[in-house]
Amino acid sequence: MRRTTAFSLVFALLAGASAAIPARAADEDVQVWINESLAAPLSRGNHATLDLSQRFRESGNQVLARVTIERRLSPAVVIGGGAAQVSTIGSADEFRPHQQLTLTYGPLTLRTRVEQRFFERADRMELRLRQRIGVAVPVSDRLRAGLAGELLYIAQSQDSAQGSHVDQWRANATMARHLTESLEATLGYLAILAPRDGAPDKLSHVAQVILTLRR
Fold first, then answer.
1. Which of 45, 153, 170, 180 is deepest in the core (most CB within 10 A)?
2. C-alpha angle with apex 20: 102 to 208, nearest 5 degrees?
3. How many angstroms separate the CA atoms of 112 and 106, rounded?
4. Which residue ranges form the domains of the chain, and what is each CATH number?
5. Stretch (H or E) spanning 13
6. Would you call 198 helix, strand, or coil by DSSP?
7. HEC string for 102-140
8. Which pairing describes strands 143-156 and 126-138: parallel, antiparallel, or unpaired?
């Protein structure tokens, strides 16, 4: 697939996300996310990833630890699953298993993820579906630019009185640089729009710093 086609698909999704932002002012905040990621092979065709994320937020700082194990079925298809533990100051902790399918077509990547979210003292398990589309292209030998859009949809809410609904729209721009053959540093901007009934939508501006070590 040509790069221009891949970019046009991602831009179309980002345009859809921006169209969801109402003309009236949204409730906005600023966050900083620091991520550390370690990826290592387990056996032929299988690899594991450990992600740690410290999220500094006005609504309560958050720490996320996630383990994912994936298996490559073909050059274009990867399946996997794992779980995350999420601790939030001033809110209920969360345990979050997930399953995912990733398809790659040249610079274009499509990821479908299903999450089962277990909150302390919640009525029931929350089921969230995530569809992400992204494109990454080299800028130079060591530098790579990326664009991505993602829809997060609540198929079953933790609150039994609440129906299914759109949880978030996300738009992400990143610039990654190889510091060594195995270590990569990424700077990014993530916009998160959370629609809310009866109140201004929540728009979060997130600065991202990511370190990735691949063994």
1. 170
2. 55
3. 17
4. 3-214 (2.40.160.40)
5. helix 3-19
6. coil
7. EEEECCEEEEEEEEEEEECCCCCCEEEEEEEEEEEEECC
8. antiparallel
